[in-house]
């Protein structure tokens, strides 16, 4: 279908990639992965013809239709949602118009028509029959229903289909573009981060829809669940090269590690041989009887192509959090709160307590009120009724998607970071930026020249650099590369404060969150665990298009494996929850025992008490008991902490 041969591309004085070669065969689903700034979007744009490579070529088969969904839309769209989506089936709707025109010709040339002509009517009837057969073959009579089905799967209500596209936000317009593209059914579907503007349910629907897609798919995504469900091959762009792996994302991880280990072993073996050869040359360089052997080895070294061990050090952020001050136990509490706009409630009867150290993921359909709930909890909008109370000593840092858009494109990374955080406390801002993946000359690059993921990393760096105990993150992984997603996940797991997280990344939710807040139908429902049934509600799978190819044994095996993995994860979560409660209980008991010991020590330090020998003896005994209790509780806490860490590993 499409052959990519030897593509090379440079940007801003640096080579993005060179010699990129792979094939896209009919029905093949290929994921393109790699770090931020390696040129994944550029490679997609070259394949679809929106950019030119400096060398190499893209050969597209005859009559191959390519559909492309970019990360950001530039086209201005008018008309209703359903009209825009049906533009994707223009080959069908144009045929429908032709049928109407031919029907008019048949009527006009018939005996009762305005221009009776038996021969013309016969020709019109033949043409109408041919067109109608073609129309039926293309599924023309069901195209409107299919368009509405795709819209429903992507989260649109029945009423939304007749709304003007101009009324929609950027994220919903992106969904319209995706629906139009899918309805057009191209031979090759090229998608650049298609899940960025979707909620969890729509992502689940899309991955099932694409898993049965009859055409070829080339896509970029950071969503690990989505990658594993859709991809059957992976092309990794790294260090200017592209390497293709057969299998899904999980297989790619294993194969890449094996390839890197083999390359490291080969390089090490060669280096060992080189050192042995160099020692021989040095030892017998001036010995006449060994002259020919020495010369032979010297020439061999000159011709030898040196193997370089693969670079494992990717340019990823090492997200870190300065130690925050300790907040109150209750970070924020709502009591029978309702919130909305213009007198119309969006959420009603919200009763919620967010405790110190909790990590809550907010899930639910787009438009259900997740952002409204966050704004209510943070005190940014007042409650229409009920009460909202933020605890003492709560310091808040908030990451929202619009913060990426607020970056000054003309500024450099260092200039923008300095403007946001200042030069307080004598911090070396270059070192701080280095911990977020901007090393060396990267801090002097203009923001306009950064990739979407690099801009997201910079925006995250601005809010994470100062100590806070409540972190609010709204879609933090959008545009991040996979290594950065992994490191962000590790940082959030280790983060000592409270987290409110909005994301469509189910893998991140499972890894980080200990509880869910489901926002749906004007209500907020608290789930004490991360339940797969809540992450992918029943009914999502039913809306997916029936598969056009029979799923193989491998797909079934992967699904069974993922189910077992999910069950094991839930079991771990239950065990970790009980251990976390035990650790917190022991911490409170230790604090009480240490407080008692401190008070007793203060009393014993009072000189006037020593006139009462019995009282001194009693206080000393009580102090010994308090210290022993504190020591015992500390040992119990250490054991519980070890058990908790072993469960989380």
Summary, kept brief:
Residues 557-571 have a biased composition (Basic and acidic residues). Residues 2-265, 332-546 form the ABC transporter domain. The protein has 649 residues and is an alpha/beta fold.
General description of the model:
The chain is of the alpha/beta class. Among the domains are: 1-63, P-loop containing nucleotide triphosphate hydrolases (Rossmann fold, 3-Layer(aba) Sandwich); 267-308, no CATH class; 328-529, 3-Layer(aba) Sandwich (Rossmann fold), CATH 3.40.50.300; 567-646, Helix Hairpins (Orthogonal Bundle), CATH 1.10.287. It is 46% helix and 18% strand. It has 20 helices and 18 strands. The protein has helices at residues 40-47, 81-86, 90-109, 118-137, 143-153, 170-184, 200-211, 224-230, 249-284, 291-303, 370-377, 402-405, 413-421, 429-435, 452-464, 482-494, 506-512, 532-535, 553-604, 613-648, and strands at 2-11, 14-24, 29-33, 55-60, 66-69, 188-192, 216-220, 233-238, 241-246, 330-341, 344-355, 359-363, 385-390, 396-399, 470-474, 498-502, 515-520, 523-527. A hairpin with a 2-residue loop joins β10 and β11 (344-355). α9 (249-284) packs antiparallel against α10 (291-303). The longest helix has 52 residues, at 553-604.
